[in-house]
Amino acid sequence: MESIFVSTNEIEKQKAIAGELRGICAGKKAAVKTYGCQQNEADSERIAGTLMLCGYEIIDDETEADLVIVNTCAVREHAELKILSSTGRLKNKKEKNRDMLIGICGCMAQEKHRVEQILKSYTFIDFIFGTDMHHRLPEILQTVISTRKRQVFVNEKKHNEFGVISEDMPVLRQSDYKAWVSIMYGCNNFCSYCIVPYVRGRERSRSYHEIMKEVRGLVADGYKDITLLGQNVNSYSGEKDFPHLLEDIAKIDGDFWVRFTTSHPKDVSSELIDIIAANEKIARHFHLPFQAGNDRILSLMNRRYTKQQYIEKALEIKEKIKGVSITTDVICGFPTETEEDFLDTLDVVKTVGFDMIFTFVYSPRKGTPAASMEGQVPHDEKVRRFNALSELQNENALKNNQKFIGQTLKVLTDGLNNGTYTGRCSQNKVVVLDKPVEKGVFVNAEIIDAQPYLLIGKIK
């Protein structure tokens, strides 16, 4: 594989093309519609920044846009179908405005069968670009505009041969007090149910110095909540390892929190836990997916840890990091999972006492080993297990939140949401506040009541 870092010359070339486009695109409006994870959100901010560089005004309403880019997710079949259905509704808009351009990018765009489907059945889509082509967006737009022909910019190399890192392209952040910072891309884990390594490529890490420069700039600009992102964030392997990158960020002067997501249990070291415990600027929230509680199922998933190893790691986090909240991901109904296997998952939930669980019904992903496994679990049974897990978790969540009653927590405010003023504490829990307060400031709030997924606070 060639160098993963896009050259300065290539970046300057793209910026020059953007300059040429400004005369053509000035006065036009663009919208970026995002599906999926935080990494997609961060990617969309970079896409929007590049579109601004090309002369577009960025708006939220895609029905009013001259250009719409749909940034897609491929984690579950339902998500892909939802995206295709939603994108299909843009067809009528384009029939009324023949000059409108529509593009698709993101993880779905890296799936060969989806690209073929889009080219065949969604003829109103003007261009498709893959997950390592974001920096080439000016060139892509110039090609589409000048040729008026459909274009596909997707790297067709094997998953272990594609994927780049580009620096110094503009970012249009959606918030002025919360920020995503991608520190690595791709994944080497190859969990048997997951499409990510195939559509995002192999793991590749940004330069430590570039990350520190970006975070220092955000803190200087007044950002209060900075989240480090990666498909497997704690496998970061730049000039320093992840624990020491996190430690160095916490040393930056300023009043802010730093978070990170998503972690793989196999890469969570005692050193990382100790560094978090010693630094109040590192948020007291740890997202640690365990996916299943049965060792046989974990082996089939290729997760590379056992039930007992996961529990020991989670309990070490709870013991060392005072006041920490632990959240997780769980898959219900992985192939061959029996009721007895599922009881092991329930046992992990009882033992660890998670603050929140993101529960998913297993969805076969074409091209992954699990999709062709025998013993697929009936959908009704997956849903039953999903409901049983949710019922147990609701009890855990309420017990955990009730422990905060009487405590005073530091809360970063999010302003008015659906008629209520809210914020989030270091543990990433939503706190409902008792009086109006502008967004993006820290306040101290005494917790006077609790619900399973809400804390009720009184500003002091």
Q: Which residue ranges are poorly predicted, with pLDDT under 50 across at least 5 consecutive positions?
A: none
Shape: globular
CATH class of the domain at 8-161: Alpha Beta
- Compute the separation of the termini in Å: 56 Å
> Strand order of the main beta sheet, please?
2-1-3-4-5-6
Summary tags:
alpha/beta; Transcription Regulator spoIIAA; Rossmann fold; OB fold (Dihydrolipoamide Acetyltransferase, E2P); globular; six-stranded parallel sheet
Task: Walk me through the structure.
The protein is α/β, with parallel strands linked by helices. Helices cover 37% and strands 21% of the residues. It has helices at 8-25, 38-53, 77-88, 90-96, 112-121, 137-147, 196-200, 208-220, 242-250, 270-278, 295-301, 307-320, 339-352, 379-402; strands at residues 29-34, 57-58, 67-72, 101-106, 127-129, 151-153, 178-182, 184-185, 204-205, 225-229, 257-261, 285-287, 325-332, 356-361, 408-417, 420-425, 430-433, 442-451, 454-459. The protein has a six-stranded parallel sheet with strand order 2-1-3-4-5-6, sandwiched between helices. It has a five-stranded mixed beta barrel with strand order 15-16-17-19-18. A three-stranded parallel sheet has the order 7-10-11, with helices on both faces. The termini are far apart. The model has no long low-confidence stretch (mean pLDDT 95).
Question: Brief overview, please?
Answer:
This protein is of the alpha/beta class and about 450 residues long. Helix content is about 35%, strand content about 20%.
